[in-house]
Amino acid sequence: MTAETRPPRTAAAGGPGAAAGDPAVPGLAHARARATGPLPLGADEPAPPGMARLSHGDGTGFALPAWPDGATPSLLEEYHTAPVHVERSGETRRVLAAALKCCWRDLAADPWPGAPAPVDDVLAAYRALIGRGDDLMRNWAVGALRRLHDSAWLVVGDGLVRLGPRCASWPAGSHAQLRELMRRLPAPGEEAAGLDVLPAAGRAEGAASVTVPEEVDEDLLGPLDERRRAEVVAAFMAVEHAAEPVHEARFPALRDPVLRRVLAELLQRRGRVLVQGRETWTSGYADGTASGTGGGTGGGPGAGTVPDEAGRAVLALVLVHSVAIPRAEGLLPADSWLSPFPTQVEELRRHTMLPIGELEAALRSLRHAGLVSQVKAGEEAGGYVPGPQFHRLTGPARRRLQEELILAAGPHTPLAAAVRARRR
Asked: Where is this region: Disordered (predicted)?
């Protein structure tokens, strides 16, 4: 099981040539890009349909999904809909702004690819921006650099920071506002101490270009009038990028069967499907897409990269204590994977046998992926519950996960034997 909206760095997607995927699986390249980040392309390899090509000087590059009508997740603000949560979002935005200040030296050009800047300069720009330079702020900035690196907004390595491929997704219409922001940001101040705790490796800069596909999904959106077209695009961004399922009353395209069919076709091209709740909607991976995206159980968070062994063990414990046990006691509906019953950290320490450092790293990774959420109980940490990605499970994926939980929680029970017999 994996994150849908916070992908790890692009290396996870495989080497050049992995972008096109299996043509027999609709939307596989888009599903891969959502699960693992921008897709690496070999020299002169074209981007899959509906994806922009970011080219380096040597002909290699990345494929980045293009959204319909050039919309971005910022559209959610117009509908007062919360986007997917980013851990320490304030620090993350400020560190990205500091990196942009240091790397975007020619404001007459587009931001990406920019020029590499020393990590020290980026941290100095961050200090100048917030007016503080204490150790706590520095640690938060280092954590933000890691998150931005993992999600391909930045590439950090060898003591340098470069703008990542996702920076090329900023629409041209926003560049003027970004330029004005850069002019207003303070320049880096005094030098900061060097860092040796960030990811390694990087790429030398060279001539670069961005090729954006024309008329993305125009065959589906073209027949619609301006109002209905905007409604479909808004619903698309909402189900794909909102933190929680959205109510159909707020998005006309979710209520109208004709527009909902157009929306479903837009999602299908990206390896996605609509997932319906009680008058609410979200999106998830299409069943069968997961087998082509690098692992998982198919559908929902299963499509994409898989947590490591420690992460899987911790997630299984959270599901057992927050879902399976309350469900067995009649406190949760049979089909629910969200729970108000947190798993205490002490419980995880007792049953995982992981060193505390590995346990904290696994929990951090699962939080970043949206697979667990930390809840509070007054002033104390209340523990962990399944995260918002579980909203995106399709019906078949929920049933498969239920079977996996039975096998994990009671491998020698008659119910587990029945599951194994049915799978033979």
From this structure: 1-25, 283-306
